[in-house]
Automatic annotation (TrEMBL):
It comes from the Bacteria. InterPro entries: GROEL-like_equatorial_sf. Keywords: Stress response. SUPFAM superfamilies: GroEL equatorial domain-like. This is Heat shock protein.
């Protein structure tokens, strides 16, 4: 029953990590 929740949490975590990388890349360009 916890598989769905774990997968969703991992997906959200990856999205946040990618967002931080994207923001950092844009800041370094400026």
């Amino acid at each position: 029953a916890g598989d769905g929740t774990t997968t969703a949490t991992m997906l959200v975590g990856n999205m946040i990590k990618n967002a931080h990388k994207h923001i950092a890349a844009q800041r370094s360009r400026m």
